[in-house]
């Protein structure tokens, strides 16, 4: 899509954009100027159906007046308050409200500002927990190949996407489970794939290698999102839970993407019936309007750390903006929307239609897999010889020109529309994407 901004083209030089081919983008930029409901509007005035909830985060749709009103009121009441040795009522109110929708027993909340910060916080909580219990030698962390846990050094280290890791030094004492990705056996699965539960048993091998007494935590995404929507095989998460319990290892679920209704329940752990010890969240926490994250913690983990002399700081960790009052106001307004419109159940209600529509694309050229769970989905394309990712990028660009925002992860087209999507809009999304795929060589 070639953009013509006339005299209104902004100077693009100063902003070094994240996870972007900057020179390619700035030569032919794609700029979004406004958003409302299910749609973006480009600077040229084109309406674009949001097939990705922005970046996995705008679960309740764009331009919600209730959130804007709550944010404005909070700005004019208490725009900032420190959370180190001080507090403010709205932070405690938001934490309490969040515990009402959390998995049973996860009734302590530590606020952060992003998914990356939530992950690094959870990893530190895991280490602090074992030290508090007299097992300070438990410092090793287990992630998973193809996992994405943000870009902090902790999340980068337990993550398993090679392009994110290769430039940087990662933390020592980290190992990885194999990915559950299995195109040979699980291609075109609908919902959770049938094959791959045995891949959880690799954890036993890593435990035997390193010694159970050295391992603090295992962290996985219930559904690997950034790798291209990889639902867990049937029984896989339960097997990880069993192994962790057997060896005294904490289990962390990264629900930054799957949290807040994406898979048909408030959290994927509830949808899949497996409760972790810690759970990282962000994105849908505030509908993407203000950066915020939260780590949900089981009471037993919290209580092991929060002990000792009452005047002593128990956990030397936090951020200037932890529990920011304006972010809390946005989050409370978002929770009200989720409850009033029953959006946590929306993913489950529309999932059968979403599944059928998405899988109708199976005969399009170059499609080698389609997978889905809840209101998430992916269409995987065969790569061009010598040019991996080129076909996926072409779909991204042409889909936008046709009025649809998708996310390209290499040659995988990932989809996660807002939970407010209508049946007609599901049809429109698939129709646009199908037309684009049909024209890709």
Q: Any overview of this molecule?
A:
The chain is of the alpha/beta class and 441 residues long. The chain folds into two domains: 6-59 and 343-438, Aspartate Aminotransferase, domain 1 (Alpha-Beta Complex), CATH 3.90.1150; 68-340, Aspartate Aminotransferase, domain 2 (3-Layer(aba) Sandwich), CATH 3.40.640.10. The protein contains 16 helices and 15 strands. The strands form three sheets. A seven-stranded mixed β-sheet has the order 4-10-9-8-7-5-6, with helices on both faces. The chain has a four-stranded mixed β-sheet with strand order 1-2-3-13. A hairpin with a 2-residue loop joins strand 11 (367-373) and strand 12 (376-381). Keywords: Aminotransferase, Pyridoxal phosphate, Transferase.
Features:
441 residues, four-stranded mixed sheet, 16% strand, alpha/beta, Aspartate Aminotransferase, domain 2, seven-stranded mixed sheet, Aspartate Aminotransferase, domain 1, 2 domains, 15 strands, 16 helices
């Amino acid at each position: 899509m070639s953009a013509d901004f006339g005299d209104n083209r902004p100077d693009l030089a100063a902003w070094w954009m994240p996870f972007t081919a900057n020179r390619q983008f700035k030569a032919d930029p794609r700029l979004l100027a406004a958003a409302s409901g299910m749609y973006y509007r480009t600077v040229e005035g084109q309406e674009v159906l949001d097939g990705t909830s922005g970046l996995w985060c705008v679960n309740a749709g764009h331009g919600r007046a209730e959130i804007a009103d709550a944010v404005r009121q909070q700005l004019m009441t208490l725009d900032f308050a420190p959370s180190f040795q001080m507090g403010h009522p709205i932070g405690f109110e938001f934490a309490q409200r969040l515990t009402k929708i959390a998995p049973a027993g996860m009734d302590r909340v530590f606020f952060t500002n992003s998914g990356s910060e939530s992950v690094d916080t959870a990893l530190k909580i895991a280490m602090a927990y074992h030290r508090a219990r007299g097992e300070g030698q438990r410092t090793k962390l287990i992630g998973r190949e193809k996992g994405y846990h943000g870009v902090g050094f902790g999340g980068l280290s337990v993550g398993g996407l090679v392009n994110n890791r290769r430039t940087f030094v990662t933390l020592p004492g980290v190992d990885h489970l194999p990915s559950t990705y299995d195109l040979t056996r699980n291609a075109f699965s609908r919902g959770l794939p049938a094959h791959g539960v045995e891949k959880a048993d690799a954890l036993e091998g890593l435990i035997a290698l390193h010694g159970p007494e050295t391992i603090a935590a295992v962290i996985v995404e219930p559904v690997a999102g950034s790798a291209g929507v990889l639902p867990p095989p049937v029984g896989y998460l339960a097997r990880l839970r069993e192994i962790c319990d057997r060896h005294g290892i904490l289990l962390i679920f990264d629900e930054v993407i799957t949290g807040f209704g994406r898979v048909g329940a408030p959290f994927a752990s509830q949808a899949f019936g497996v409760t972790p010890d810690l759970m990282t969240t962000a994105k849908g926490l505030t509908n993407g309007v203000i950066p915020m994250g939260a780590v949900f913690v089981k009471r037993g983990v919290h209580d092991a750390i929060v002990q000792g002399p009452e005047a002593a700081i128990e956990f030397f960790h936090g951020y200037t903006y932890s529990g920011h009052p304006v972010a809390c106001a946005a989050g409370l307004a978002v929770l009200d929307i989720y409850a009033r419109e029953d959006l946590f159940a929306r993913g489950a209600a529309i999932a059968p239609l979403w599944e059928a529509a998405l899988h109708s694309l199976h005969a399009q050229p170059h499609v080698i897999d389609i997978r889905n769970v809840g209101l998430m989905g992916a269409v995987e394309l065969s790569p061009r010889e010598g040019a991996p990712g080129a076909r996926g990028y072409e779909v991204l660009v042409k889909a936008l020109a046709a009025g649809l925002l998708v996310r390209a992860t290499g040659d995988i087209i990932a989809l996660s529309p807002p939970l407010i999507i209508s049946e007609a809009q599901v049809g429109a999304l698939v129709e646009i994407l199908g037309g684009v795929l049909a024209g890709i060589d």
